[in-house]
């Protein structure tokens, strides 16, 4: 499939096509940017043991933050409180950004709630939150409700990159799968065995595949249904988990399980399958594959804000946005197991909310 069509199918769009060119130039040592250096993760701590495990894996992969991204410089007289309501997938990431922000502004209070992407739009409309993290784009109906309230649309920021992974137990003999097979496993239809996917190991072949997934409030649920199932309904036997980590934990304890979750929730007890869109070889989830548009389930992780171009962002909100899109903010993305946006993406986002990038 041509790169343009494949990227469009992956829902990452023109920004990642630009990023692929940027990455290629950096790798070749071209342009004004120095050679990328591995992220140190100094921009934020890891809230909890599981988070630390994911961060260590990200470091092992030596993901580089774009060297053109500047470090954040604190402003004076920033105080108050802000709140984030939305994606469970991004819950730990928002917490990491909050930690990073508080290293610059220790008196600011940052509250983070992650019950699912569906909770972000109403929280923004009702003024209950300043940030609405979502692992999918808003639906038109959600945008319309926001516009009806404020007279303008919510502003979407592309604050991190994810590869939505299809996980199996680490001992599973299956290593790759096609999107058509993913749809057969998770979608409506006859129950599937591992043998139906080509597994010949007698300990596995006749075993039914135990399927784990997210609830309807989850943006990951919506994205997976659209991109992996082609809009088909999930089979009734999917064992619904309330959070992204719950899916991974379930797969980790069930050798015959398969589930989907963000790449940031990977642990040593599970393994993501390489995925083929049916037009070429299977591709493992990776930063390079996401930038190139080769991994079929690559996606942005979004943060929505209420930006009125006539008034601008409140100073506290503007500074949090600047931290998210700074070197420290994107190092926190890497530490959380996700992939950083490029300087060009960050620059576009800052301009979108009326902030002068300065780089």
Tag the structure with descriptive keywords.
two-stranded parallel sheet; alpha/beta; seven-stranded mixed sheet; single chain; elongated; 359 residues
Textual characterization of the structure:
The protein has 359 residues and is of the alpha/beta class. The chain contains 13 helices and 11 strands. The chain has helices spanning 3-9, 14-28, 49-60, 91-104, 120-125, 140-150, 179-186, 219-227, 244-253, 287-292, 315-324, 327-335, 343-352, and strands at 81-85, 109-113, 131-134, 155-169, 176-178, 210-214, 239-241, 257-262, 270-272, 274-276, 298-305. The strands form 3 sheets. Strands 3, 4, 6, 7, 8, 9 and 11 form a 7-stranded mixed β-sheet that branches. The protein has a two-stranded parallel sheet with strand order 1-2. α4 (91-104) packs antiparallel against α12 (327-335). The radius of gyration is 20 Å and the shape is elongated. The two termini are 35 Å apart. Residues 1-11 and 13-60 have low confidence and may be disordered.
Number of helices: 13
Number of distinct beta strands: 11
N-end to C-end Cα span: 35 Å
Specify the overall morphology.
elongated
- Parts with pLDDT < 50 across at least 5 consecutive residues: 1-11, 13-60
Largest sheet: 7 strands, mixed
Quaternary structure classification: single chain
The residue fraction in helices comes out at 25-40%
